[in-house]
Amino acid sequence: MWQQGQVFKLKAKGVDGQPLWAYRYRLEGRGSTRPQVGGFATRADALKALEKVLARLGPAGRAATIALGELVDEYLEMHQAEQVTIAKLRWLLGKATAALGDVRLADLSPKEVYARRLTVPEGHRFEATQALRQVLNRAVTWG
Fold first, then answer.
1. Is there a contact between 40 and 49 (Cβ–Cβ < 8 Å)?
2. How many helices (H) and strands (E) would you count in the chain?
3. From first to last of its 143 residues, what are the pLDDT tens digits of the chain?
4. Report field, pTM of the whole predicted structure over 0.85
5. Residues whose CB is less than 8 angstroms from the CB of residue 108 and which lie 6 or more positions away in sequence, other chains included
6. Strand ranges, E, within the chain
7. CA 51 – CA 2 distance, rounded (Å)
């Protein structure tokens, strides 16, 4: 099920005394969570941000088509660090991509990530999980 979302005025005011705007959407029908993002200066700004999120998450959005392995490759290409750090990240992320590399981001579930985490030897589990978290957080930042 797909809902377009909505833009609405917040009760809070900006520093200039003007009303702030927010958006929220629901992707999985009634009963699912409704992410809400607010603090936009204008209705148009909130609407533009909502459209961007819906385009990214929608059936034809990038999150619907890019796989975890592709994201990891893009991240490592752009990551600015020493070569030894990149090599270690590649090795740590290889533990996730070996099991989940072909899974599309839109289909990646916390349950799958947690189950994969338990297959990593305990000595590297924390670092491998942190590396994956780092990449997924960057994906959110990139939109």
1. yes
2. 6, 3
3. 345 789 999 998 888 999 999 999 876 667 777 788 888 999 999 999 888 877 766 655 565 678 899 889 888 888 888 889 999 999 999 988 988 888 888 888 888 888 888 888 889 899 999 999 999 888 877 76
4. no
5. 68, 100
6. 6-13, 19-24, 36-40
7. 13
Side-by-side strand order, sheet with 36-40: 6-13, 19-24, 36-40
Q: Which two structure tokens, joined as six digits, stand for 121?
A: 């030897």
Q: Give the residue among 99, 104, 90 at the shortest CA–CA distance from 135.
A: 90
Q: What does the block give as tokens for 102?
A: 């072909």
Half-sphere exposure for 93 (CA within 13 Å, toward CB): 22
Closest CA to 28 of 56, 2, 64: 2
Judge contact between 57 and 106, C-beta under 8 A: yes
First to last CA, the chain: 22
**Number of Cβ atoms within 10 Å of the Cβ of 16:** 6
CA 102/CA 13 separation, integer angstroms? 45
